[in-house]
Amino acid sequence: GCFMKGQKWVYPILMLSVFAVGIIVGSIYAVNMRESAAAALDEYISDFLKNSDLQKNSIFLSSLGDNLKLFSIIFIAGFFKVGAPAVLACGVTEGFVSGFTTAAMIKLKAVNGLWISLASLPAALIFVADLVFFGAYSMDFGITLGKKDVFLKKSYFIFSLIALTIFCVAALCDGYITTIFMKMLVTKM
User: Fold this and answer.
1) Closest Cα partner for 91 from 120, 61, 149, 131?
2) Which of 3, 83, 103, 141 is the most buried (most CB within 10 A)?
3) HEC string of the chain?
4) Pick from 172, 160, 104: which is nearest to 136 by CA?
5) Contact at 8 Å (CB) between 23 and 96?
6) Residues 25-64: tens digit of each pLDDT
């Protein structure tokens, strides 16, 4: 297809860059949050960790819903030449959420927060890799307007199906693997 020829490496680097900017901003925001907000968040995290084993299905469904919304935005953005900003906005938003969550966990739960963040790493790595490459492919498809080319259109749909499958796998990991790791860690806390 049209991906990774010539200067196409710019798109994944752009996606990684906006994701990294989101992480930095989210981390700074979490570190500087007000005491009242930190106390409320700490209480929420504690309740969540106690009940994470019971909430596997709802965690999976919530993650799946979020991933499907994200997929839809990126997929649709690929059909417009001006879709790239929407894809980049998705990247920076997801980075912000990741950075905020990790920094808040570490700020509120110290070493245990670090362990909890590490427990979600497998799902996060699958998700981020998919976000970066699908976002890059979508921007490339939109900007080069390969929509008129039947081969490029087919390859975009096939790539999108693969990306959708990977987003679903990431949600499964969030709901069922991350919660197992968290339960193991919480019992040791």
Assistant:
1) 131
2) 141
3) CCCCCCCCCHHHHHHHHHHHHHHHHHHHHHHCCCHHHHHHHHHHHHHHHHHCCCCHHHHHHHHHHHHHHHHHHHHHHCCCHHHHHHHHHHHHHHHHHHHHHHHHHHHHHHHHHHHHHHHCHHHHHHHHHHHHHHHHHHHHHHHHCHHHCHHHHHHHHHHHHHHHHHHHHHHHHHHHHHHHHHHHHHHHC
4) 160
5) yes
6) 999 999 998 888 888 888 887 777 777 666 888 889 999 9
